Amino acid sequence: MCNCDDPNHKHGKISRRAALRGGLAATAAAATTATTASAQTASPYADPENSVLPPSNMKLDLSRAALVVTDPQVDFLSPDGVTWGVVGASVTENNTVENIETLFKAAKAADITVAVSPHYYYPTDHGWKFEGALEKLMHKIGMFDRPGPLNLEGFDGSGADWMPQYKKYINDGKTIVTSPHKVYGNDTNDLSLQLRKQGVDQVILSGMSANLCTESHMRELIEQGFEVAVVKDATAAAIIPDGDGYLAALTNFRFIANAVWSTQEAVAMIEAAS
Q: How far is CA 60 from CA 128, 192, 202, 208, 266, in A?
């Protein structure tokens, strides 16, 4: 432990993040146990046996398609992130980290547009006069914090940074990194503009987290006239006593998206259209 009296000292920040991760893990324990017990009988995430929804007829045209990844960041996808205690079980079950990388690889191999929509908070964002429940939590635990929009001090390896295995895809000089979204959806950043400027109107959507940023991006893109396929196992969500975020999102993906694919299906679609 650090004996430094300075509350802003780096070691103090690490200890606080570790404590917050532990608190979130304890909060989620009961829900995780219940979910595990349920999974031993029948998965609540399985495709319905008697779906009454019309089947998807979405076909990829790579000349106008893009892979969009929301929040591929440490705080959501790593055991070192502040939310791992509540999202870790879902990320692990879905193989989310690896599936997102598989999509990056396939998109880069096909030379299609790739865009990342990140979540950052700057000091001024912590002065908001009102917030929703999850906004309050994210601000409280320092999620996605950066010292400022023009300052990368402390960014490398922080909770706001990209997952290490994704950096070679994101930092290749070709991937679009949009301005940050501030709540959940891309209506507060330049994603739609960037995609339109690339002639894109089909989106393969993945990232974190399912019922928050990913679902909000799906909704906004649909409203903006994009054709959207959500990759259901390249996302995940919090499972807490208040609800299963992944199950909630999966329902809405099926109801709203133009297609819901597995990672394997998405890669097959990309390769078939190449």
A: 41, 19, 7, 23, 10
What is the identity of the amino acid at 230?
V
Q: The tokens of 193 are what?
A: 């503009």
DSSP structure string for 115-149: EEE-B-B-GGGGG-S---HHHHHHHHTTTTB-SBT
d(C-alpha 175, C-alpha 164), whole Å: 16
* Distance separating alpha carbons of residues 9 and 143, to the nearest angstrom: 18
Q: Which pair of tokens denotes residue 52?
A: 């009454």
Helix or strand run (H / E) with residue 191: helix 191-197
C-alpha to C-alpha distances, 259 to 38, 71, 196, 228, 269, nearest whole angstrom: 27, 21, 20, 7, 12
Q: Round to whole Å and give the CA distance between 220 and 236.
A: 19
- What percent of the chain stands above pLDDT 90? 69
pLDDT of residue 37: 44
Residue 218: closest CA among 208, 209, 210, 228: 228
Question: Band of the pLDDT at 228, cuts 50, 70, 90?
Answer: very high
Classify residue 72 by its DSSP letter.
-
> What pLDDT shows up at residue 220?
98
pTM, 2 dp: 0.83
Residue 261: alpha-carbon gap to chain centroid: 16
